[in-house]
C-alpha cells in the first residue's frame, strides 16, 4: 500500500509540474491578446524594428525639438555648446544603455563665455513612443553664475531594449543661448 501511494504521489506531482510548465510557456503567446497599450500592442508593437532608427535630418531634428521644447529656438545664433561625454570625459556620439552600477555618462554645457543664472538640459528620444520620454535637469546658478556645467546622466536599459536609438540633447540658458546635439544609445 505504501508503495502504491508513493508512486501515485510522484505521478501526480509530475503531472502538476508538466501542467505548470505548459502554462508558463504559453503565457507569452497570450500576452499579445491583451489589447493595445497606448494604442500599441504591448508585445509586438513596440520593438526596435518598429522604431525608426535612421539618423534624422536637420529639419527632422528641428521639428522634434519644437515638439518637446517649444521655447527653444534652434535656429537662433548662439555661442552655447553642448556635448555628450562618456565615463572618462571623452566627447562621444554613442553611449551604452545604463545598468545598475555602471559608470555615468555626462552632459556638457558651455556658454561661450557669457555667464548665465540658469541652465537647462533636455534629452529625449528622436522617435517616440518611448518608455522614457524626457530626461530633464535644471540648474539655478544665480548665486554663482557659470559658463560651463558637466552633469551625470544615464539612459536606463528598459523593457527589452526600448530606450536605445537616436536621442537629442538640448541645452539652453536664461540669456537666450542654446544648442543641441544628437547621440545614439546602444544596448
Task: Jot down its keywords.
187 residues, alpha+beta, 5-stranded mixed β-sheet, 10 strands, 22% helix
Distance between the termini: 59 Å
In the predicted model, the low-confidence regions spanning at least 5 consecutive residues are 16-52
- What order do the SSEs take from the amino end to the carboxyl end, as H and E? HEEHEEEEEEEE
Strand order of the largest sheet: 4-10-9-6-7
Tell me which oligomeric state these chains represent: single chain
State the shape.
Answer: globular
SSE blueprint:
Elements: H1 2-31, E1 36-37, E2 40-41, H2 58-68, E3 81-85, E4 94-96, E5 105-110, E6 118-125, E7 135-140, E8 148-153, E9 165-173, E10 178-186
Parallel strand pairs: 4-10
Antiparallel strand pairs: 1-2, 3-5, 5-8, 6-7, 6-9, 9-10
Structural write-up:
Helices cover 22% and strands 30% of the residues. It contains two helices and ten strands, in the order αββαββββββββ. It has helices at 2-31, 58-68, and strands spanning 36-37, 40-41, 81-85, 94-96, 105-110, 118-125, 135-140, 148-153, 165-173, 178-186. The strands form three sheets. A five-stranded mixed sheet has the order 4-10-9-6-7, with helices on one face. Strands 3-5-8 form a three-stranded antiparallel sheet, with no helix packed on it. It has a two-stranded antiparallel sheet with strand order 1-2. The protein is globular and about 40 Å long. It starts with a helix and ends with a strand.
Amino acid at each position: 500500500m505504501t508503495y502504491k501511494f508513493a508512486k501515485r504521489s510522484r505521478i501526480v506531482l509530475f503531472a502538476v509540474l508538466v501542467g505548470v510548465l505548459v502554462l508558463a510557456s504559453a503565457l507569452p503567446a497570450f500576452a499579445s491578446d491583451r489589447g493595445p497599450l497606448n494604442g500599441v500592442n504591448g508585445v509586438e508593437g513596440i520593438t526596435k524594428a518598429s522604431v525608426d532608427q535612421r539618423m534624422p535630418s536637420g529639419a527632422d531634428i528641428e521639428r522634434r525639438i519644437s515638439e518637446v521644447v517649444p521655447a527653444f529656438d534652434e535656429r537662433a545664433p548662439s555661442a552655447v555648446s553642448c556635448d555628450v561625454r562618456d565615463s572618462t570625459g571623452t566627447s562621444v556620439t554613442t553611449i551604452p544603455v545604463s545598468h545598475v552600477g555602471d559608470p555615468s555618462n555626462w552632459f556638457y554645457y558651455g556658454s561661450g563665455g557669457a555667464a548665465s543664472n540658469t541652465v537647462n538640459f533636455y534629452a529625449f528620444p528622436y522617435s517616440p513612443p518611448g518608455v522614457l520620454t524626457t530626461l530633464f535637469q535644471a540648474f539655478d546658478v544665480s548665486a554663482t553664475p557659470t559658463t560651463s556645467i558637466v552633469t551625470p546622466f544615464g539612459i536606463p536599459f528598459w523593457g527589452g531594449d526600448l530606450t536605445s536609438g537616436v536621442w537629442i540633447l538640448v541645452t539652453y540658458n536664461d540669456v537666450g543661448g542654446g544648442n543641441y546635439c544628437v547621440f545614439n544609445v546602444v544596448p
